[in-house]
Structure formats: C-alpha cells, structure tokens
Specification:
By secondary structure, the protein is α+β, with helices and mostly antiparallel strands. It has one domain. The chain has a five-stranded mixed beta sheet, with helices on one face. Strands 2-3 form a two-stranded antiparallel sheet.
Length: about 190
C-alpha cells in the first residue's frame, strides 16, 4: 500500500481534533516505530536459514518445527516475542485476499468481518500480534482494541480513537483487531 493511503488524512472522512497521538515512549507507539514500513524479510530469512541447515530440533527449544520467531521485546507490551506458525500466515493471507483495502464504505453496505475461532491455547491472541505486524510491514492502517481502548495505527503513528469514534469517520473499511479474551464482557457491542 502506498504511503499516501496509510496517512491519517487518507483514512479519515472528516478531521477529528479529539484524537490524541499516543506519546512516543508508550509501548504501542514503540511497537509502531519498531515495525511500521519495516520488511518482514529478516524474520523470513531466519526461518529459511534454519530450515536449510537441517538443524535438529532441541527438545527443550521453544520454537516449533515450521515456525519462525518474531522478536518484539518492548517493555510494557505483551507478548515479548512470537512463534510464527505457518497457520498464522495462511489465515492472514486468506483474509487479506478476501478483504482487500481500500474497500469503500458506501459499496460494502454491512461491515465485513471474520472471526478466528479455535480451542483455548492454540494461539488466536498471538495471531492478532502477527497480523498487526504484517499490516505495519505493508503500511496498511488498522485499528487495535487493546487495554479497553481503541487505537488507530497509521503512517504518522498511533492514535487513541476511543473517544467518540464512528464507522463513518473513516473513508474506507479499516481492519480492526479485537481479542475477545482480553476484553471484559466479550467483544464491545459497537464492533458488532
């Protein structure tokens, strides 16, 4: 996605003066700074080199065969790192194919959505962090519901849009990530 489609002005249908930019020292801003427009090739290379060497898996190792590791390591942000499973890549690719950007709000009628389901402990929460990393690598704006607040990630940084946001504030459909396990009372009603 081009940089001009990932700017704050490009995603908003009308200016919003009440949305505050998250300070640069806050964990989500550091996450943005570390990964926005940064290629995922280093993570892929790590996986490819490891696969080619035929390295025998250590029984005590935390990284499963077929996975690669994404180091987040930002103080105050969970998780510190991700074991990227091939399933995460396949799920993201399928959703990206079925829900491309930009999708004009007037053309789509109802808000499209996808729900990732599965047994507890299979990595649904981790998938959200992987998906946000992918979106940042390709400079695609998204919303993240985190810590009972809604944050907009765009080229200029992260904005707290919790206060009075509406679907009509945006020019086109913006991917929104909500982890129902991390929200008291389940998914907030204004998302469904």
């Amino acid at each position: 996605m081009s940089a001009n489609l990932s700017s704050l002005a490009s995603v908003l249908d009308r200016p919003r003066k009440t949305w505050d930019k998250v300070p640069d020292h806050e964990p989500l801003a550091l996450f943005h700074h570390k990964f926005w427009a940064k290629s995922m090739e280093p993570e892929r290379e790590w996986h490819n080199v490891r696969s080619k060497t035929g390295e025998v898996e250590d029984e005590d190792e935390d990284v499963l065969p077929g996975c690669y590791y994404l180091n987040i390591d930002i103080k105050g942000l969970w998780p510190k790192g991700l074991c990227i499973r091939p399933d995460y890549v396949r799920i993201y690719d399928a959703l990206h194919r079925d829900y491309p950007l930009p999708m004009d709000m007037d053309l789509i009628g109802q808000t499209p959505c996808a729900v990732i389901t599965g047994q507890p402990g299979i990595g649904k929460s981790i998938w959200i962090w992987y998906a946000t990393r992918r979106r940042m690598a390709t400079r695609e704006p998204f919303l993240l519901y985190y810590g009972s607040k809604l944050f907009l990630f765009v080229q200029e940084g992260v904005y707290d849009v919790s206060d009075g946001w509406q679907k009509s504030d945006f020019r086109y459909f913006i991917w929104t990530f909500v982890d129902s396990d991390e929200t008291r009372g389940g998914i907030p009603p204004h998302f469904v």
